[in-house]
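Thread: N-acetyltransferase domain-containing protein, structure

OP (GT): Posting the sequence first so everyone is looking at the same thing. Length is 289 residues per the record. Can we get the structure tokens written out before standup tomorrow? I want them in the notebook alongside the other entries.
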Amino acid sequence: MAILLTPFSYTPQTCSSLNISPKFTNFSTTINGYGYNCNNNTTPFGFSVICSSQLKETSPTTPQPILIDKSLLCVNEAKYENELWAASCLRVRTFYAFQNETLNTQDHTKYLTEREFEALTERIAGKRVGFGKVSCINATLPFSEVSNVAYDLSTSCKFSRDNVDLVVVGTLDVNQCIRLPDEITGAKPKGIGADFARGYLSNVCVAGELQRNGLGYALISKAKMVAKDMGISDLYVHVAIDNEPAKKLYMKCGFEHENEEPAWQARFLDRPRRLLLWTDISNSSDVSM
């Protein structure tokens, strides 16, 4: 089985973009001397970790969520390299988990982040075959707001804009394309122009410490507006079939079931089966919901 080193640079093996499954199959492996805890939703393109791999069903022992001041939250397209780097840091932080006994994790985390950053910037610059426009959308909070409650997050995913320190707490990509590698292909729209009017959300993730603050909803709301501005009329997202929190979120955001991955394909790719969800954003005057 091919092991992914980054959600973007991979021997196509897909973990749908919203693998927020409350049930995970964990296994350990070693790559180039580094040990990992991998779950089957370590995502390449199509998978969203809106609730990241850390989102699980609520139980009596689940800690209370850290509440944020939503008036300080900004959700915008990332325009500069330092913002894209911070987004890459959050994705690696969310999609990969080193084993506790692993040595030199900082060096390898930096390596993974560099790979993710390189792939992300290439896609946004239009250098990846098969893609039209690609936009990275970040949810950010002031450093002072995050450092008091999640210091590791604040230092890992920080960047500066206009001399103000900010932290990326959520991120996703909007991809204008016919299909994502190793994912179910959407059916709408059909005919000429589908390569411009069809889009997919991918690499959706929210910092585990700040989940259940509506960050995923805010990201998708902004993504729908950006997608519509790109000329996309039919927006898709992939989600693990047993990922109830993610499915509820997407349904709340107006997505509905269109298709599902054949069982044989999921077994071949060694991952949970995917659902393909769709929403029409062409006629809505308020895609922000």
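GT: Both are above now. Quick notes for whoever picks this up: The chain has eight helices and 13 strands. The two ends are 41 Å apart (CA to CA).
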